[in-house]
């Protein structure tokens, strides 16, 4: 059976060029002991993948040039040499960026039994959802009544942070760009603030208007002027959960940081980076709390869906151009 | 009785000019109910005072133009209308920048009874010492065996941080400038690293050489290239206690921050500002732990002493030019 997959032909500097992604194929070998073969239905593309393209080991191993790329995926077992997995089982796994994956069965997880669409386990109930929940609760220690600010508030992670914070009884401000994203935030009862065509000072003023009582919790996805503006509005004892700084992921030369970091002292504030993988032991708690909300339609999670394996690189690149509302997914035809 | 005191004639921008400090005098009124009159023997000048000069409320009220400035001081009661304080009592209080202070007795603290020089309560056993202990233990959660980095490592606070960390069994690297400061650090078993004439990258390389196993705890007094260099050497789970960022206190236009703040994510690191005043409830624990070490000569604390009330502004300004080793003090003649 033929597997079609993407490889990286070189390590990008700056925004990766489309030509760096090469679609290749190979005939799969027979199943080894313990292996399963999976037909992927859904592929995930995520900003963190940019880090794996640089050839440098950060918190996750880099992609190897010429080898199949990896990423979250949902599929169906079509052949199994593993005692616990049978043909027809729906599974989530890391063999994405390809149509047919062949993997050790032990590295594959059967989908939990909640009444939600399969692809929810790549988004609202998968890594982005768990990231939102972890950052808000475990890192920023968000409490009811807190004033919460979220950058990239309509993204896969941010769109869940704002809703989880609203559900907790917080006053929530969301930073986004496009008008339809701002409108969507407003429809959730979130105060929308645009970063477009604004200096850090202007963005800071807009945040102050939207949150006159300051900011207790900042969920950081962006960096750049968003961070500088947020720092200037912190309350005493504020907590910043740093999930990512997408603003700098494609920078060819490092951009300077905020000029007002000493606000951390004046406001006795905490700024803490985290990687969701470290907190996976809490995934069960997250799922128990959030999956029923998803099944009941109480969480308005967004998806942006591209069709076909060939659209995977474009779907990935669109993440850096504001091309997604909510979780970016690639849907594969059968 | 005449009190001589300094006032501020204007709010400085940049490094304050000497002319902004005006020496004035006034005849003190009779003691009110509960008041005491104190002849000061020692005055403290500290970097945080720069913040009070800007006319902006940060974490402490600004100095008022034309009014006596304030600061830590040690003196002797020369007249008392307070039931618990009598003539001859040694006290610490905030009526500094003057020779004779007249204050409510309730705002004055009798010196504890440890076998140490009086002025120790302005330095190693006072605010700077408590700051070092708080940042290292309560904020950075320093553990035996940690790799500890300290900027301004020969300053009033830093010089105690390095010794407290050594006493805990840590590997300690200290950043300083002048050769005699580096030599003093080396004499304590601290790895000395100079920041002079170095780029952030060069400083980072020097830190790596001095601490090949990375940095678990960074005690931050400076900001600027020190912070950028430290961020690039963090271990996973590192803790940064931000005590201050003296590098920027006199900046007329804000200098950009470090370009590698996203290291907080990659290293899952925490960066937390603190103000020692919030932790004063723990002062007794600190004193019990550190005062015997001072009395026994086990803590090598440094003082830089200027003589006479008239030297107070120069003593303060010298803090920003590397003019002190350890605690900067002004000694008043009787």
From TrEMBL, chains A, B:
Q: Spell out the SMART domains in the cross-references.
A: PKS_ER
Name the keywords, alphabetized. Answer: Oxidoreductase
The record's section on Pfam families has: ADH_N_2, ADH_zinc_N
* An annotated Gene Ontology molecular function: oxidoreductase activity, acting on the CH-CH group of donors, NAD or NADP as acceptor
The Enoyl reductase (ER) domain sits at 14-330
Source domain of life is Bacteria
Fetch the PANTHER family from UniProt.
Answer: PROSTAGLANDIN REDUCTASE, PROSTAGLANDIN REDUCTASE 1
Official protein name in the record? NADP-dependent oxidoreductase
Q: What species is this protein from?
A: Vreelandella aquamarina
């Amino acid at each position: 059976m033929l597997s079609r997959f993407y490889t990286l032909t070189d390590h990008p500097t700056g925004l990766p060029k489309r030509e760096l992604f090469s679609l290749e194929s190979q005939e799969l070998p027979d199943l080894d002991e313990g292996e399963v073969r999976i037909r992927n239905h859904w592929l995930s593309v995520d900003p963190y993948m940019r880090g794996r393209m640089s050839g440098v080991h950060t918190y996750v191993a880099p992609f190897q040039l010429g080898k199949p790329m990896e990423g979250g995926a949902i599929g169906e077992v079509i052949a199994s040499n593993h005692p616990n997995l049978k043909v027809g089982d729906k599974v989530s796994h890391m063999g994405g960026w390809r149509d047919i994956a062949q993997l050790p069965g032990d590295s594959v997880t059967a989908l939990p039994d909640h009444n939600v669409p399969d692809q929810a386990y790549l988004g609202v109930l998968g890594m982005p959802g768990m990231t939102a929940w972890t950052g808000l609760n475990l890192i920023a220690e968000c409490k009811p009544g807190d004033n919460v600010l979220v950058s990239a508030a309509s993204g896969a992670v941010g769109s869940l942070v704002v809703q989880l914070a609203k559900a907790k009884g917080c006053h929530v401000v969301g930073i986004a760009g496009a008008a339809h994203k701002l409108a969507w935030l407003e429809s959730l009862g979130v105060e929308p603030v645009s970063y477009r065509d604004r200096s850090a000072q202007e963005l800071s003023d807009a945040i102050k208007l939207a949150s006159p009582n300051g900011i207790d919790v900042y969920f950081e996805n962006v960096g750049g002027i968003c961070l500088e503006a947020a720092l200037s509005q912190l309350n005493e004892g504020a907590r910043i959960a740093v999930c990512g700084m997408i603003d700098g992921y494609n920078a060819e030369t490092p951009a300077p940081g905020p000029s007002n970091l000493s606000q951390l002292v004046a406001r006795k504030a905490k700024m803490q980076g985290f990687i969701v993988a470290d907190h996976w032991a809490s995934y069960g708690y997250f799922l128990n709390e959030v999956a029923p909300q998803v099944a009941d339609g109480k969480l308005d999670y967004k998806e942006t869906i591209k069709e076909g394996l060939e659209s995977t690189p474009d779907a990935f690149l669109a993440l850096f151009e504001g091309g997604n509302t909510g979780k970016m997914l690639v849907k594969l035809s059968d």
